[in-house]
Design goal:
3-stranded antiparallel sheet, single chain, elongated, alpha+beta, 5 helices, 5-stranded antiparallel sheet, about 30% helix
């Protein structure tokens, strides 16, 4: 069973002007293109640090701004139908390979998205039965959209966490995975983001 991101990702959580306010830089946008480019790179790094990567790992544990994903697996069982992220916007399609190898779409009216705490699961509508699928590891594909609906819908405290990371990355341009983020900065980011994580039920 594995995940693939189809669309989305790499969304900047704050604007260039917002970042400059945090950094106390008064240069208007466009006045110093090299400086703007440097800050843009820092914004991208800070935003990526909070988002999941292309395989669904890292960050806060869920996509931040609307991303479409697909999950592939061998069976329509409970483990497969338990979606991997909090904040699922929609289940877009379920398709499978039948015993003959033909690709079939499961009718949308035969299942529903239901909640378990912050997590979501796909469940059968009463009377519906999951179909038999081909005996292969990629027999089933579930496509779904996760994250906040738009950048405007991302809560302000998550954007505040991005600002804190922007300041750190700007002040420490050589910071990388080897040096890590200082404990004081990490505590501030954790305080701002803790309630959004999937385990904060």
């Amino acid at each position: 069973m594995w995940l693939e991101r189809l669309t989305g990702g790499a969304t900047d959580l704050i604007t260039l002007a917002d970042a400059k306010d945090k950094l106390r830089i008064i240069s208007p946008e466009g006045e110093d293109p090299e400086l703007d480019a440097e800050i843009a790179r820092v914004i991208a790094s800070a935003s990526a640090a909070l988002d999941v990567d292309q395989d669904g790992f890292g960050g806060l544990g869920f996509p931040l701004v609307s991303q479409q994903w697909c999950r592939r697996g061998a069976a329509l069982d409970e483990r497969f139908l338990q979606l991997p992220f909090a904040r699922i916007l929609s289940v877009d399609e379920i398709r499978y390979l039948d015993a003959t190898g033909a690709e079939v779409v499961v009718p949308a009216e035969s299942y529903a998205l239901v909640g378990r705490g912050r997590m979501r699961q796909v469940a059968q509508i009463s009377g519906a039965l999951w179909p038999a699928v081909a005996d292969r590891p990629d027999a089933v594909t579930l496509t779904f959209t996760a994250g906040f609906e738009s950048l405007e819908a991302v809560p302000e405290d998550l954007k505040a966490a991005a600002r804190e990371l922007v300041k750190f990355y700007y002040d420490h341009p050589l910071a990388d995975a080897a040096t890590g983020i200082p404990e004081q900065v990490q505590r501030g980011v954790d305080r701002l983001t803790r309630r959004y994580r999937a385990f904060a039920l």
